[in-house]
Design goal:
single chain; alpha/beta; Rossmann fold; 7 helices; about 25% strand
């Protein structure tokens, strides 16, 4: 991924939902996979964030809000051989926001880092929704073109609907709740929740079994 992102906070946006799912207390510790430049952790005043990302330039721009960061290639064949600086900690929250679709083996990555999460902790997963109405309309027109950004980002290795995302990860965790968020249509999803699967990305809250 290139460029430096910023949190997009609007009612019912994907970033807003992720923020709402993480308690901003001094007792909360978060391990963020694919933290990039730390734009999610920057939203919090009290929670303690640690981050992993492959982009060294982004990590250099990391806010002082993060207590620790490490440059890591999450596509390593065997993550168990890697020396993680934070594996002796016991995190309350594992956050994987818009990163799993970029990984070769996203389920195995989540399964590995589940060992870093305390019993009863929460796992927050956010993935693009390829069943979005825009993609459906393009398919009707015979178009399926990858782009530099968005749902059909050409760096995406996996495409998820709500159902396939739940199926992919529910075997690792206890499913708690599914949300839909959108930067542009969050307000519409808020008033008409049934439109979520058509207009929004999928945010899933899991618990550690």
């Amino acid at each position: 991924m290139t460029g430096f992102y910023q949190a997009f906070i609007r009612p019912h946006s994907t970033h807003q939902i992720q923020y709402n799912l993480i308690p901003d207390t001094i007792e909360t510790t978060v391990l963020e996979l694919g933290c990039h430049s730390g734009y999610i952790g920057d939203l919090f005043a009290k929670a303690t964030f640690y981050g992993l990302d492959i982009d060294a330039k982004a990590l250099k721009r990391m806010s002082k809000r993060y207590s620790g960061v490490q440059e890591v290639d999450l596509n390593r064949i065997d993550l168990s051989d890697y020396n993680f600086e934070f594996e002796d900690r016991n995190f309350n929250v594992l956050l994987a926001g818009d990163v799993l679709e970029h990984l070769l083996n996203p389920r195995e990555v989540l399964r590995h880092f589940l060992g870093f999460v305390e019993d009863g902790g929460r796992v927050i997963v956010s993935v693009p929704n390829v069943a979005n109405i825009r993609i459906r309309l393009l398919l009707l027109l015979g178009q399926f073109n990858y782009t530099p950004r968005g749902i059909l980002d050409r760096t995406h290795l996996h495409l998820y609907t709500k159902k396939s995302a739940v199926t992919a990860f529910a075997s690792c965790f206890k499913l708690k709740k599914i949300y839909y968020g959108s930067s542009n249509f969050g307000w519409l999803i808020r008033w008409f929740p049934l439109l979520g699967p058509l207009l929004g990305n999928t945010i899933i809250l899991f618990g550690k079994k």
